[in-house]
Amino acid sequence: MWTTESRRTYDRDGLRCRSDLTDAEWMIVAPMIPPAKRGGRPRTAKGFVVLSKRWIVERTFAWLGRCRRLAKEFECLARRALAFPRLAMIRLTMRRIARSQNQ
Length: 103
Hints:
The chain is mainly α and about 100 residues long. The chain contains five helices and no strands. The chain has a domain at about 75-103. Helix content is about 55%, strand content about 0%. It has helices at about 5-10, 25-30, 50-65, 70, 80-100.
């Protein structure tokens, strides 16, 4: 049963959200939180920051999106469905090689 003392302990009116933790609760939870992993967005960054691996993946999908067959058609056979993205990447790679040799 709730007593006046226990109600004061669990009162959340002073917090911004009801799910926020008090300082006493944070002291209990803090040791259980694992340390942050390396990589990702730097903590000091403000605004847009290019993340190298994410940029590579997004650009690759954008280049593949220019291949009309991949964007519009659905293949009946799994072999064909796997072959066309591979052909698109071969075409992209060949174009890059040809451009680098012409320069």
